[in-house]
């Protein structure tokens, strides 16, 4: 019986120590910043961004949002296995907000990893 | 033996109450802090969109509390902020909800004329940390004005004249903006908390 309680105790120590642990801070975007260079105001630019799962558990891509209606991230795979990669498409349509000059926009992706929020910055010179 | 049983039960209870404990609240503190602590205004704007109406309400309610406690307000401004606090709830952050419509009616942006332009901008158009940046009066005193002032504060809006509506539906600057708006169809149903921005992308907030 004594051994039984020892096993239970050991189990709880293991649970307490490892229960909510997730992988550390790692970047899932291969590139943190994309400079589109010169873009005409009426252009629609699509650019690929590579997303990788560096964590040992499944990476769930939960939500994404951008700082401008003119920029969006399209992802087809929402769950990535360890080391698996996928390609997301960032669309940039400068005419939606009509600004010219140097612009900077951001896309934030929420995942289930320890570092939940991942950012990518889009830069362009709109003419 | 009994002692061991109590220890085991104690550990079980401790584990039950402490493990992964964030799930007990409607407010995702980690997400809220990510929005508030971002140093890049574009990231702030994007991250703000990930907030639930409850979390948006939480942020603005806290900001109003901070203003009421720390800013040197006139009686009129103080009463405005108090009423605003009373009228705020998470439903007004639900796009196209009845509550949002009512809030727009109850808070026409002309009411903001009781504030100095930069003051209103500071309070309602940015999520700049007021503890770090100080009171609006101290900022005015240091001569930080104009566009540079705004960008220093991590501007929470797209600025500049646009060919079309620059507002981003659902964002901090555009809980509304459901109308197609061009420079020729400027509307006061603009965007931003308290609709400080007109919908056509003027560089300055509406009415300021």
- What is the helix/strand order of chain B? HHHHHHHHHH
Average pLDDT score of chain A: 83
Main structural class of chain A? mainly beta
**Can you tell me the residue ranges of chain A where pLDDT is under 50 for at least 5 consecutive residues?**
none
Our estimate of the beta-strand percent of chain A is over 45%
Helix content of chain A: 10-25%
Shape summary of chain B: elongated
The count of β-strands of chain B is 0
Strand order of the largest sheet of chain A: 1-8-7-3-5
**CATH top level class name of chain A:** Mainly Beta
Please state the CA-atom Rg of chain B, rounded to the nearest Å. Answer: 21 Å
Helix fraction of chain B, binned, reads 40-55%
**Would you give the CATH topology of chain A?**
Immunoglobulin-like
Strand content of chain B: under 5%
Characteristics:
heterodimer, A: 127 residues, mainly beta, Immunoglobulin-like, five-stranded mixed β-sheet, three-stranded antiparallel β-sheet, 1 helix, 8 strands, 13% helix, B: 208 residues, mainly alpha, 10 helices, 48% helix, elongated, disordered C terminus
Description:
The complex is a heterodimer of chains A (127) and B (208). Chain A has 127 residues and is mainly β. Chain A has a single domain, classed as Immunoglobulin-like. Chain A has a five-stranded mixed beta sheet with strand order 1-8-7-3-5, with no helix packed on it. Chain A has a three-stranded antiparallel beta sheet with strand order 2-6-4, with no helix packed on it. In chain A, a hairpin with a 5-residue loop joins β7 and β8. The termini of chain A are far apart. With 208 residues, chain B is mostly helical. In chain B, α2 runs antiparallel to α3 and α4 runs antiparallel to α5. The C terminus of chain B is likely disordered. Chain B has a domain of 126 residues. Chain B is elongated. At the A-B interface, α1, β3, β7 and β8 of A face α1, α2 and α3 of B.
